[in-house]
Write a structure and sequence with these properties.
The structure is a single chain. With about 150 residues, the chain is mainly α. It has a single domain, classed as Arc Repressor Mutant, subunit A (Orthogonal Bundle), CATH 1.10.10.10. Helix 1 packs across helix 2, helix 1 packs across helix 3 and helix 5 runs antiparallel to helix 6. Strand 1 and strand 2 form a beta hairpin. It is elongated and about 60 Å long. It has 7 helices and 2 strands. The N and C termini lie far apart (about 50 Å).
């Protein structure tokens, strides 16, 4: 299974919001600059994430997006399904084609793999990604504001 750019950008955008947002609204433009994602494309992705109720939009000065739930309650599976549809259908699209050769293939293997991938992604939350990023010393956006040189 390959992850599309859209899926990768959605995961990176949600991670950035969880890791750097600290519950405050963050503009898509800012997330896009940090993650190296075109802002207009990321805005389309965040509209899908909003429709899936993973983020909430705040309008006006100081507006942007915030997570709709705590990071521990948002899974990578939910993010992928918000932008690409049901994961099982996505995995099924990668299955071997029908035909005479297909009847000699172990079809149960694909269903088993799909189930395990779904389970693994459902167990992987934004909070887990943030903990891992902190352990790997991934730089936070607000780290710059605390760095003073004399």
């Amino acid at each position: 299974m390959r992850l599309s750019h859209q899926a990768q950008y959605a995961i990176c955008g949600m991670f950035d919001l969880a890791y750097n947002g600290e519950g405050r609204p963050v503009q898509v433009r800012v997330i896009g600059e940090r993650q190296g994602i075109p802002g207009r494309y990321l805005e389309q992705i965040f509209q899908r994430l909003r429709r899936a109720r993973l983020v909430q939009g705040k309008r006006g000065p100081g507006g942007g997006y915030v997570l709709a739930r705590p990071p521990a309650e948002i899974t990578v599976r939910e993010i992928l399904e918000a932008v690409e549809g049901p994961l099982r259908e996505r995995l099924a699209a990668d299955l071997p084609a029908e035909g005479s050769a297909a009847e000699h293939r172990p079809a149960f293997v694909w269903a088993e793999l799909a189930s395990r991938v779904e389970g693994a992604l459902a167990d992987l939350s934004l909070a887990h990604l943030c903990r891992r990023a902190a352990a790997d010393a991934v730089r936070r956006a607000h780290d710059d504001s605390l760095d003073y040189h004399i």
